[in-house]
From TrEMBL:
<dbReference type="Pfam" id="PF07690">
    <property type="entry name" value="MFS_1"/>
</dbReference>
<feature type="transmembrane region" description="Helical">
    <location>
        <begin position="60"/>
        <end position="80"/>
    </location>
</feature>
<feature type="transmembrane region" description="Helical">
    <location>
        <begin position="361"/>
        <end position="383"/>
    </location>
</feature>
<feature type="transmembrane region" description="Helical">
    <location>
        <begin position="230"/>
        <end position="262"/>
    </location>
</feature>
<feature type="domain" description="Major facilitator superfamily (MFS) profile">
    <location>
        <begin position="25"/>
        <end position="425"/>
    </location>
</feature>
<feature type="transmembrane region" description="Helical">
    <location>
        <begin position="186"/>
        <end position="209"/>
    </location>
</feature>
<keyword id="KW-0812">Transmembrane</keyword>
<dbReference type="InterPro" id="IPR036259">
    <property type="entry name" value="MFS_trans_sf"/>
</dbReference>
<keyword id="KW-0813">Transport</keyword>
<feature type="transmembrane region" description="Helical">
    <location>
        <begin position="27"/>
        <end position="48"/>
    </location>
</feature>
<feature type="transmembrane region" description="Helical">
    <location>
        <begin position="268"/>
        <end position="287"/>
    </location>
</feature>
<feature type="transmembrane region" description="Helical">
    <location>
        <begin position="92"/>
        <end position="109"/>
    </location>
</feature>
<feature type="transmembrane region" description="Helical">
    <location>
        <begin position="299"/>
        <end position="318"/>
    </location>
</feature>
<keyword id="KW-1003">Cell membrane</keyword>
<protein>
    <submittedName>
        <fullName>Putative MFS family arabinose efflux permease</fullName>
    </submittedName>
</protein>
<dbReference type="InterPro" id="IPR011701">
    <property type="entry name" value="MFS"/>
</dbReference>
<dbReference type="InterPro" id="IPR050171">
    <property type="entry name" value="MFS_Transporters"/>
</dbReference>
Amino acid sequence: MSLTTLSPSTAAPATPESSSPRHGRGFWLIALAFLTAMAFSTVPAPLYPLYMARDGFSTFMVTVVFAAYSVGVVISLVLAGHVSDWVGRKKILIPALALELVAAALFLSDPSLPVLLLARLVTGLGIGMITATATAYLHDLHTAHRPGGSHQRFEVISTAANIGGLGLGPLIAGFLAQYVDAPLRTPYLVFVVLLLVGIVAVAVTPETVEERLVKPAYRPQRISADHGDRAGYIAAAAAAFASFAVFGLFTSVAPGFVAGALHLPSRALAGVIVFAVFGGAAVAQTLTNRLAAPAKVRLGLLAQALGVPTLLVGMHTASLTAFLVGGVAAGIGAGLLLKAAIGTVAAMAAPAKRGAALAGLFLIGYLGLSLPAVGIGIATRAISTVTAMTWFTGLLLVMLAGVAVLFRRGTGTRRPPARAARHAG
């Protein structure tokens, strides 16, 4: 099966409240809460050089702090990413946003290294609950508000909230850190207010999952490809891993490289660079909405395959222009691949298992977010960052070739139904 997007025949779970304009308003409220949470998760990205200067961090320690976040995400996805399928979306999202408030309070406590690690771990715990749940919630609300309609709006908004939020956080934090007093406190104060607004937004949105009187026996989330099309799920998971590997690079190592090797310490510039990568991904997802799904995947693979080597050239030559152009191209490719992956999994999964299927996808994606970044951090203890990035580039190109092979096998084993193909976008 190709990495198809959603067809109008995909059904939402039975809703405890009848379909109404409230579902349409709720769709945008959940998108806002999702965007806010994802933006908060990347606030520290442009601030890492400030923590490094204050506490004497190395690049390796930055990746350890980053790994704490990824560990939190993976733990949360395994333990709670799928639970909203039977207890309801709101009962997971509101506590998850509250965890982000706890993390913000830890950051505001002027943290030492152990508290900083704890703050990132708590952030990850909340995000792991949010990603799959919010994505499934948006799908439910969209389907309830526009039954039988195209799912392009869901795909664009869900991926834009996810990826756009990841880029918006560093942009806001970078400018606040550059031009406002207390650079290690002000960004978190701003997001405390925004997260409170997000909690209110979730609270007033209609629930879309009927809570089961007899709940299934709890067990942690398992990574399973048994969601309607095994080949399609594996291809989507591989695409998500490759996409998140690029995003992990820019939220962990890249700001420190720009400040150090390129001698450009501006926090605002660091935020702009990270935003440009994620913003490019979000814009590409929107502009290519009418392309057929296979064309999106091929374009995404090509953009990543060209972008990361160009970024590497910028690192070797200390050229900010090449570094930025390569990063934006790689971000565009990652965004397209991730959009295709999310659309595929949301379409193939049964409504009662949609949260679980997406949780498995994001679990694999966040392994891609953390493992390469931590690997680069460990490597920098023995070799230069540029040399480590050279190895990363080679491994990523091999990974992208693997995604292409999986995709071709998927399209060779099963063709999308005609109705789904007409609405793929």
